[in-house]
């Protein structure tokens, strides 16, 4: 069974089944990230991002360096997405960033967890993260595995999001809690 088949088979992937294949992709991605973060032009960065992501980043979207991801190939980025500096993605379990999303500096999106039981702690628990259309995540936000940020939601700077955020809601704090509905004019 290949790596993608194991990941798609269910939420828990035994570390021994995937370690070699995962490590190879992580190493390759790490080398590409060195080049991406040192590239002088946006055109150079886009070429390198295609190797990291496995597809061409939409022309309307931007990822500012420095940027880090552990895997890279399980991140989907839509149109008109802005990803500010020093974002970090742990995407083996899948990260989807829909159209018109804004990610502030130092946002962390994590789609991988581990078992509580020490005998299985190295096993990977994969749960995708989804950032829906028009959402805005402020500086230093962390989103943990399995969370969906609803359309047009705002996550205040420094928040740690441990539960789904409804569409058009503003949340903040650690753990993030509802503050109010997003105001529109």
Written overview of the protein:
The chain has helices at 3-9, 15-38, 42-53; strands spanning 12-13, 62-63, 67-69, 75-77, 82-83, 87-90, 95-97, 102-103, 108-110, 112-114, 124-126, 129-131, 136-137, 142-143, 148-149, 154-155, 160-161, 169-172, 177-181. It is of the alpha/beta class. The mean pLDDT is 92.
Characteristic key phrases:
185 residues; globular; five-stranded parallel beta sheet; 19 strands; alpha/beta; seven-stranded mixed beta sheet
Summarize it:
This protein is an alpha/beta fold and 185 residues long.
Topology:
Blueprint: H1 3-9, E1 12-13, H2 15-38, H3 42-53, E2 62-63, E3 67-69, E4 75-77, E5 82-83, E6 87-90, E7 95-97, E8 102-103, E9 108-110, E10 112-114, E11 124-126, E12 129-131, E13 136-137, E14 142-143, E15 148-149, E16 154-155, E17 160-161, E18 169-172, E19 177-181
Parallel strand pairs: 2-5, 3-6, 4-7, 5-8, 6-9, 7-12, 8-13, 9-14, 12-15, 13-16, 14-17, 16-18
Antiparallel strand pairs: 1-11, 10-11, 18-19
Helix pairs in contact: 2-3
What topology, given as strand order, has the largest sheet? 2-5-8-13-16-18-19
Query: Structural class, judged by helices and strands?
Result: alpha/beta
Number of strand elements: 19
The biggest beta sheet reads:
7 strands, mixed
Span between termini: 52 Å
- Output the radius of gyration: 16 Å
Share of β-strand residues: 25-35%
One letter per element, helices H and strands E, the order comes to HEHHEEEEEEEEEEEEEEEEEE
- Poorly predicted runs of 5 or more residues: none
- Total count of helical runs of at least 4 residues: 3
Shape: globular
- Name the average pLDDT: 92
Range of helix content: 10-25%
């Amino acid at each position: 069974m290949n790596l993608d088949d194991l990941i798609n088979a269910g939420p828990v992937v035994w570390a021994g089944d995937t370690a070699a294949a995962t490590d190879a992709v992580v190493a390759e991605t790490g080398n590409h990230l060195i080049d991406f973060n040192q590239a002088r032009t946006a055109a150079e960065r886009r070429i390198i991002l295609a190797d990291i992501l496995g597809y061409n980043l939409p022309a309307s979207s931007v990822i500012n360096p420095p940027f880090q991801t552990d895997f890279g190939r399980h991140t989907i980025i839509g149109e008109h997405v802005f990803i500010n500096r020093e974002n970090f993605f742990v995407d083996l379990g899948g990260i989807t960033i829909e159209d018109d999303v804004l990610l502030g500096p130092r946002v962390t999106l994590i789609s991988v967890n581990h078992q509580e039981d020490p005998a299985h702690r190295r096993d990977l628990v994969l749960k995708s993260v989804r950032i829906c259309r028009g959402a805005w995540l402020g500086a230093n936000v962390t989103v943990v595995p399995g969370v969906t940020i609803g359309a047009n939601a705002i996550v205040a700077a420094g928040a740690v999001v441990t539960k789904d955020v409804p569409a058009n809601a503003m949340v903040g704090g650690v753990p993030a809690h509802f503050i109010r509905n997003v105001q529109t004019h």
